[in-house]
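Researcher: For the record, we're logging two predictions in this thread. I'll number them. Prediction 1 follows.
Model: Prediction 1, sequence and structure:
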Amino acid sequence: MPSPQPLRFGRLAALTLACGLGAGPLLAQTITVYSGGSLPIATSRQLTAYVPLSPNTVTWSVNDVAGGNTTFGTVSATGLYTAPAVVPTAGNVVVTATSTAYPAKSGSITLAITQLQPRLWSLSPASVPAGVFSIRLNGAAFPNNVAVKIGDLQATVTRLSATQLQATGVAPSTWVGKNQPVQVWATGPGTIGSDIVNLVVSAGAPSGPAPAPSPSPAPAPAPAPSPAPGPGQGTANLAAARLLEQSTFGPNATAVARVRSLGADAWLAEQFAMAETPIALPTDNGMSTVQAQMLNRLTDAPDQLRQRVAYALAQVLVISANKNIYPNELVPHLRTLSKHAFGNYRTLLEEVARSPQMGKYLDLANSNRPLGGSAANENFARELLQLFTIGLVKLNADGSPQLDLSGRTIPTYDQSTVQQVALALTGWTYVGSGNNNWENFSGPLVSRDVNHDPRAKSFLGCNLSASQGADADLKATLDCLFQHPNTPPFVSLRLIRQLVKSNPSPAYVQRVAAVFANNGSGVRGDLRAVVRAILLDPEARNDGAGSNDGRLRDPLQHIAATLRALNGGFQPGSQLGWEIGRTGQVPLTPPSVFGHYAQLFRLPQTTLFAPEFQIYTPTEATLRGNFMWSLLTQPGANMRVNLQPFTAVANNTTALIDAVDQQLLWGRMSSAMRLSLANAINAQPDATQRVQTALYLTLLSGQHAIQH
């Protein structure tokens, strides 16, 4: 595995604290605060708190100081945190959201306060002989307290300005023929390093004493004129590529050719009929093996549509390896999502409800009827309502919230509903001979009516008769929620956001929800029909990207799409869980029942939904960039890429840009981006770095990070 970049950033932490007021229905409720990581001095980050309480209002504090202060940073009533102007002594601060109704309930997040990150763009010269050398470093935000490290050498540095440094040192003969990483550091509390630029060390006589630094920057030589980047070659493959971006883990040349040959409708039919890629239970009982197999399926499985839909369903029906820590506690859930990806949502719900994997994750297993002042466990009941079927507020058929006469949203259910559903779902345990069996993942949960609450239940207009048993109550509960008018728009909207765009029009949602309610043959919940409706809708097939169209790729999708576009993929035995986790998404390990990111997260100071942006803070953006750089330069044994098509045209700037445009953006690169790319490419010293620069900058651009 390549060594991680030495940037001192922490990954996003979504810390969920379970805080109780003693026994009772509030015990399982939690406050979750998003999002942690690191934050430079004097910058701001919008924090959000999920509060499953009524009222759902909170007060904010920093290090137990209400509203914060100039030493620790301040936080507004809406959760906007602003870091202090100086790094605090401890380096970290803790921001807490506390329920106004239940002061004992709170959620916290830790932020590491750093100095402003210096940026390093280039070296002059980019190559030096062994011996004494002097180089000029060009960049931005170079601080007064600055250090420069070249390989394992601490260089002598003179700060010329905020954009230029002069560094001197002695390159040993052992460096000859090797690249040495150069990095600028803002030293002191909250230290942080810059981007890395490589210095080439060549054979040759020592260069003699280093020249004294100039008091002011010497004028740079006039750059050679860049060749015109060309107007681009058009978008002949755009329609096919966009369909593949929405229905697979990324287009590649072979898939694009197949879609263009068959047409969208026939290609979907071929994918629907394709054999399911098996999901193996690893013999080594290692979760890293499960992660490796999953990553390999994302890029290499031929049934790409099934893989993409199962991945989308996994963001709805969440299970996490942070609780289900062994493969047999997770793999069967992945198999269930894959098996039912094109099946019926009601069937999927029941298999998930009866699975011991979900029984462990949301505590349905061994949830017994109340005795002696106890209460039925509400975890699965709450998420069944909130996340799997009807959501928090009443919806119109187009997914928009219904409003009361005061313009407020109308809750879909209340605490009494949760309690009634929890009672209806009592009496299930793991396979075994007893009534409350120890964890056993060999088969579905089994019912024990002796532990089932026998009373009649009533919720959401549905009435369950007394004494009908655990099995009948479970089926009746699922039927009630499946038939609820909220379920078609709620589930349809979540799938549209996963596959196509974060902000679909109400009309788009309504068209898909209508198919969920009735596939044309009187069948409700037909996921094959729903997926087809999502992907073939005119709004999805509109190839002209509007300003609010598309969705940010999450880290796994972005990396997988990159590998596929470069005619590569994840190797079957890759060991990348930790490295990918640094980008904000540990494979198969979402931090909470809400997944890796909250579906209702909005871009700060806008009305736009942008779920994936919750884990794309400056920290995660930088670490994702580091991962992309290692993908291009050191794929190692974990990933494979084929850069030969780019290397073949590396010395022709226009041809290189065209190749990148067609293979990564499908002809959509703007003229302004082409010009910027040309300037960056022409500043590189050799063909390898020209290719790496062209690909890296394109991969991190909004035109590729966003699935349009």
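Researcher: Logged. Prediction 2.
Model: Prediction 2, sequence and structure:
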Amino acid sequence: MKHPSRVLASLLLAATASMVASLALAQSSTQATTRVVIEPFDANASVATLQLGLPTALQRALNEIPNVYVPAIGDVALVMQKAQQAGKSQQATMRALFSPDVVIQGTVSGSGSGMSVSLTVDRAGSPQTLTARAPDGTPATLARAAARTLATALDPNLGATVLGRIDSAAAQTPSLPSLGPVALAASRLPGAKVADLKTASQLDPNSAWVKAEYARLLALSGNAKTALPVAQAAAKAQPDDGEVQVVLGVVEQAAGDNKAATAAFAKAVQLNPSDAVALTGMASLESDAAKAKQDLQAAIEAYPRMLDAYLQLASLQDTPQHALQTLRNGENALPESVALRRAIVQNVINAGDDKGALAYLQQAVQDPMAVSAGLYSLARLLPADVTDGALALVRQGEKKYPDATILKAAEGELLVHKGDYAGAEGVLSPLHASLPKDAAIANLLTVAQARQGEIQAAQRTFESVSGSGDSAHGDLARIFLAAGRAEAALGLLRPIVAKGTQDANVLAVYGLALARVGKLSEGETELNKALAIQPNLALAKRGLSFLQQQRQLTGGTDVTFSADAGTAFQQGMYALEVQDYQTAVEAFKRARSLDDNGLSAFFEGYALQLTGDPRSAVADYQAALKAFPDSDIVLNDLGYAHLQLGRFDLALEQLGKAVKANPKNAQAHLNLGLTYYGLQRYSDAVSEFDTAVKLDPNLQPSVAKVRQDAQQKASGQ
């Protein structure tokens, strides 16, 4: 095993104490942010478009005021809708999640011959009623009048420059035919279409707001290069419009120009230091982690529901515990966010608490503000050791949301993880029939069929969405290899390789498939070809390492398996190669239950050790040692497992045998040195460290610190 750093932590008693990261929110400037929430307005049928259009126009205009932040209207609407569905007070829920200083409501009336809006401005429970009118019946005129009225109500002392920017932003409000799709896009509600925004840009060619939203949707649809000149034109037309600058930053970043994106975000923040989206965008491009944290904390202060800020801030924390604390803080403001819940579940899983992740989801779905089909579907992330609980949770969700295809797909995926491939096919086949172009469902069904040996059916399913070209067959071959169907993978890849492919991934999978059917030398050749093309290809490097281990263990002789055991063994090896260690453990267990041998026992122990369970690995290594009594590979890994468990006496015995069996095994010398270190035999430790580095100079960086410590302690003895 090549993980001495895990043991160093327990052997080196001196540890650096880490400071607890502060999660207190920083202010974006010396003046605190005024958080403003604008709710969707009421409107009569003749001006229904203004129900969303006018508050969205006002949101953009009021965000021109320094240290004022108004979030997207769609987020407010979604929270209020969710509260209603959960049987909760809409107002109380909205106030709890947004923490607003000011809440604005409105009612629009009139027609094309004249419109007016009655506004209620509630600051700290003291409502104020205001009115704005548009005698000409145009949305822009009404937006300008309402924006000026609201701005002076929020701050009577605003200067002419800020008032001018507010007026200019409101004046970008498009005509009634364009306002609907533009407001939908700007509200961040789902359903906005690029084609509709293109039409709006033709109807209102002089509106920077329309141009900006069109550019943003183009970038989100993957057309950043097309979006860039549109966003730049909007910024040129309205250079001091902070909302336009934010969109320009988003588009520049999508186009890969991070320097220009940073400049756009910085200008938006200069105009309004509380612009949460601009602050979050700047942080995503910031190389200084401390500055990025400051920007993210300021974004959250301005907008407590800024999802991306929480996710970024969690990724910058020094410890997993602080990252989880950050995410849980976000959960208070974003209870319904599946993305945030996903990050929490993944964080808990990464900490090794699989049961805790399951318990978290079981608790989360009890919250009426959080529960959704998407939340239930997160059970598909849970590791194999809690699959039964995950399945039960998904099926509970299916009863609540019987039409949710996401839950059927999750059930199928979990059944695949459980090894119930027939059950998975039973769930996924009708789902694939109803959604024939859904690639994710088709791929899951392909896996279930391949695992059962239904090669032709799997190929038909896969090709129904991916086609039958060389690239598709390369991907399908990888599925076959993961399913333990190496012969089927070879059948797909031989014609591609015969044509002289230079695709390193294809050659790597081909080499692994050859090794799986016992052609070790040919497999090694193809893996080396893959590495010659792409030297850092992880799949090929790991595959070559395992192939060489297998050859050293068996002395090059073939180890025979029954058909089903061989399939399970192949599945385990592929799982190891892609670092899916828990799946590898389960596969090797199946192989051993069908046809036990030393090779499967060794790799089961290896996989267990990589999951962090050296205690269970010991028994497997001991079983492997009966089959390969003189193997320095088995002796080294068994000794390392004892070392991880703190049994220095047993580690010393096995590692001593390992270096005797193969004096050139650098890893065994390193582990023996660590054992001597643990036994306080520092001179012997230094000697073994030096031997290890002499045999393998690549070990020098990992051994330098402990060798220096051992040398100092040896000198003092």
